[in-house]
Amino acid sequence: MSLKELGNEVAEKFKKAYGRPPQWIAAAPGRVNVIGEHTDYNDGFVFPMAIDRYTVIAAAPSANGAKTIELRSTVGDQPAKIDLGQALKPAAKGTWFNYPLGVIAGFQARGMQLPGFDALIHSTVPLGGGLSSSAALEVSTATLLESITGKKLDLVEKALLSQKAEHDYAGMPCGIMDQFISVMGKKDHLLLLDCRSRKPELVPMTDPTVALLITNTNVKHELTGGEYAKRRAQCEAAAKALGVASLRDANAAMLERARGKMEDVVYRRARHVIGEIERTLHAAEGVRASSWPTVGQLMYASHFSLRDDYEVSCAELDVVVEIAQSLGAKGGVFGCRMTGGGFGGCTVALVQADKVAAISERIASEYEKRTKIKPTLFVSRPAAGATVLKG
What we know:
By secondary structure, this protein is of the alpha+beta class. Helices cover 41% and strands 24% of the residues. The longest helix is centred in the last third of the chain and has 25 residues, at 264-288.
């Protein structure tokens, strides 16, 4: 279904829910990170793309001119009523509407007067698969509010406002990648984002013969002991031993010279990050040159580093990568890796577009045979970022 068709479908759902057509419709995509994992908090580079799965919000002014916002979701969550006459504060942690609520608060903090409105939220971004359904919800809300207020934000400001909503209202200390790609994604382009300078660079990927195949393993291992915080601390310890502000400023030779100054686990964490930053920059060069075997090999190297040095993979992610490798370039797979924070979620594979059906079938059947879990697969080309469909 095209984005326009999806917008029309949500308009119909809004009409059914509220008895009148919407005045505004906005959409923002989820994302997949092609390469550059656990580099963001080390001031490194990430290389995501927007996927053609969207969160769409349709809205119309409150029927009776009330100074309230009503948010409904098509997945059947309890509707949220927000009184604009009162100071906004987060609802209980884990409440779904904290994401849009934080964005609304961000607009108010900028002195923008919001009228009352009714909204219906519908999403095709898979929830809980590490494809950034939360950023899609925040950015679609911000895009909707731009239409309602008639005031457009600078793209970077819009991404940062959405990130702040997730920090302050949802209590998730996320990096900047998800909101930046959801705001700035462009059809047939990936986004090379410098997490230190926040400078985005669109990299064309116009070759129609390749696509990205995303496999959701449908597992999420709950880990105790704050694994992410632990790795962050290990990266900081490595940077300190190397005498640099962050691992972005180190290279492999420096790391080898300082190996004796750090525990082996700290050394391995740093080896992943330093190598991954380099791999990400090389992958961007590979995409520019349409050198798909090169990009694929970098994706495999990224996965093995995440598995062995960073230790954030899991058996199910490894199985998908093994199946992809067994198919190889002859079977239409250039490369495959886990994507996202790890311990479950999704893999991303660079594949020949005309072999997607056969590859998907093979991965799905082999994976289920080996894990007894049904995966969810879909293919995407680089898609457009946030957009106004009506209003």
